[in-house]
Amino acid sequence: MSNPAAATANGAPAAKPVEKTPSYAWPCLIVSLLAAVGIVFAWMWLPGITFPVFKNWLAENNAFFANPANFGLLSNVMGLVPIGALIMALPTTILVRKFGAKATTIIGVGCAVVGSAISAAFVGSNFYVFLAGRFILGLGLSTTVVSGPTCVSMWFPDATRGRAMAIWSCWAPVGIFLSNFVNDGVYHLVGSNMANLQWVWVAVAAVFGILFAVVFRDPRENERSQVSPERKPLKAVLKFFKSRQLWCLIIMFAIFNYMNYAFSQYLKTWLQTPEALGGFGWDATTAGLWGGLIVACGALAPLGGLILDKTPKSKKYLCVVVGILGLTICSALAFHAEFFIPYVIFFCIGNMMLNACCRPLVPTFVFKGGATAVAFGLSFLTLGQYAGQIVTSYALAPFNEGLTAASNVAINAKQAVLASGGTPADFGPAIGQAVQEAMAQGIHVDPMLAFWALVPIGVVGCLLAFGVKPSKKQAAGAPAAKPAEGEAAAQH
């Protein structure tokens, strides 16, 4: 495959795309990955410490929550980030077109740092300004996750692009795992203060952003992959988006994120919920470790990327089918303690394949349009990603309400013991009594609320995954798009 549309600045044909991965591609991949991971810490600290802990902290430290009715705003803490990301997804293409992928990534990280700083400064005083900071964080998140893989795609040729972009796609699972694992400890280390916790992650995101700015550069002419860094006019690349496969992939990716976001938000809370109320009764450290490891199974994406690279072009869609089917089966088993092991297995299959395959497939549909087309395709993918996540926080709200109430039973019992002068040795009897009272009140985890919110949507995703299958003409090697007149115009 080649990029006939690419040209040098003086009008001469561009150098032939490299077939061997340039050595400097790997440092560029690493710093692009770290830039995104740093934002995850600022985004996902709440699931890391759990909703009940945050709710109790607000009750004690923010006068706004003296009125219990205001706790209904908590769904916006996670919901506003993907809303901001959704709004910024498509405009990021304009930034890439105007400033380039590197500068756009720096803009995205900077925006996320500013938003996180606002949230840190106002979490204890003005909750609405805190939420505004979360929204701004979402703007920066979207900008970074569109421009970041665009940076990577320019460095890696067809033979290794799948695994390289799969490695980059580990940004979310790796970040979420680390967030689940370390946030409880960091929270106590900074004096159990939500503002201080967020300032820590502001600093981490800023450091990773600076590292990216120093290390990353665009590939030289003799280092370019089939995806040219050339920034064509947006109008010139629109012809590459008349693709049934691309749109099925984008919509399916939205469904994947809708389903997956439920697990990343609620898994740790469920693992800490008392057994008699439908959970596992694990302490925060154990729940953080195992919950983080499970959610981080998307870090297996490089293996999925290798599978994608080795799969024949006409069969690559099956990698997507296997992924969404695994996640749908996982959703049917989720939050049932008796099905925990098969739930984890199918969750890992779904995340490994979908994190590995979706982003790398976008350049295969639009690579002839250069960096602009790849960024535009990834913008639509990101649009689908955060559209799915926005819906999750609200569609799963009834399930989360019961889950939070059940998890709070143990938390409140422990706090009552300590407040009365007791010791951790007294936790067991106190929790046992509190659980009995909760059961009498009908408090428990209802997994069927999650089932009906997730599984039917997953079935739709499976059907869309089959839509990624290439036509017989494309499978035989014909170009996905007609050689439009605009291609020649794009060179001028």
TrEMBL record:
Q: Where in the cell is it found?
A: Cell membrane
Note the superkingdom of the native organism: Bacteria
InterPro entries hit by this protein:
MFS, MFS_dom, MFS_spinster-like, MFS_trans_sf
Q: Which UniProt keywords apply?
A: Membrane, Transmembrane, Transmembrane helix, Transport
Q: Which GO terms describe its cellular component?
A: plasma membrane
Keyword Transport present in the record's keywords: the answer is yes
Q: Name one GO molecular function term.
A: transmembrane transporter activity
Q: Which Gene3D superfamilies match?
A: MFS general substrate transporter like domains (1.20.1250.20)
- Entry-linked PROSITE patterns: MFS
| Pfam families registered for this protein in UniProt | MFS_1
Membrane-spanning residues: 24-46, 77-96, 103-123, 135-157, 164-182, 197-216, 246-267, 287-308, 317-334, 340-358, 365-387, 449-468
Where's it mainly located?
A: membrane
What topology in the membrane does the UniProt record assign?
Multi-pass membrane protein
Describe the location of the Major facilitator superfamily (MFS) profile domain by residue ranges: 28-473
What this protein is called in its record is: Nitrate/nitrite transporter
Tell me the organism: Gordonibacter pamelaeae 7-10-1-b
